[in-house]
Amino acid sequence: MDGKGINLHHLNLFYYIAKYKSITKAAEYLNLSQPAVSLQIKTFQKNCGVKLLDIIEKKIYLTPVGKSLYVKCDAFFNFKKDIEEIIYGNKIVKEIISIYTTLPFGEYYMKNILPYINSKLKNTYISVLQDTTDNIMDKILNFETDIGIVGKEIVHPKLITKRLLRDALFVICNPNHELASKKIIHPEELGKYTMITHEPNSSTRAIVANFAKENNIHLNIVEELYSTKLVADVIKQTNDISIISRQIILDDILSGKLKAIPIAGGLYRYFYLVYHKEKNISPYLGEIISAIESWCDDYNNSLIYNNSDSKEK
Q1: What is the pTM (predicted TM-score) of this model?
Q2: Domains of the chain by start residue, with CATH
Q3: Confidence of residue 204 (pLDDT cuts 50, 70, 90)
Q4: Which are the contacts of 170, defined by CB distance < 8 A and separation ≥ 6?
Q5: What is the pLDDT of residue 309?
């Protein structure tokens, strides 16, 4: 082709001639004259240096090269059509929404939120991954995720943080512990018992530590564990106590494997929705955020925290 690029107009002519097996029909579809199409397809083949069409007794047949080219053209022009529909707003594009959450929220709340989102929005495509709060903040700042849900309030000039969900923390123990029969525990009682806590970087650990400081309590911590499930499993087999979300271990409470006792005055942790201030909130992403907020509002409004299993949601 003497270094020249392919003439896309000629390629388009070839595609419709090959598709309809007729120069006349291709010309009608493209709103061109039949002689003009005939002349241009001859020019195209001459410039390509290869025969693409055989015309025998007024019927058009594709040569082997023509057949190969038609397959590629079919994919190319259909792809081009998709692009044009996207650009000109005639086609709804399914966005891939990326959400990063901390471990507790991802494991215990997203499993209920995702079906709720799917009931509100059809054909949703959401990627949910878990990471630490600090890593999630970095991903949001670098536009590597659309939104994050974390266990502590983030103050940053480039980020928007909204309180999303409130979760009550309870003292937990095994059913044979001397605290198991109590209806409520006062803060000053906590220092009397050996305690298992989350690892130092967890939001729950920070909340408990701050609570102890505010109430001038010395906590007798004997173990630091990395997950709520592991904490609960150890508590079942020891005479230690811990402070975690009752809702997260509700199955163990309902089955009688653990007891949860409220703390006088209440102790709560919060989860926060975070995204970049400059993030473009598309209509689709906006609907997903609204669905998450709606589920969390329902949760906050309807869940009754007390020691009566029969009243638990």
Answers
A1: 0.65
A2: 8-87 (1.10.10.10), 97-165+269-304 (3.40.190.10), 166-268 (3.40.190.290)
A3: confident
A4: 243, 244, 245, 246, 260, 261, 262, 263, 305
A5: 39
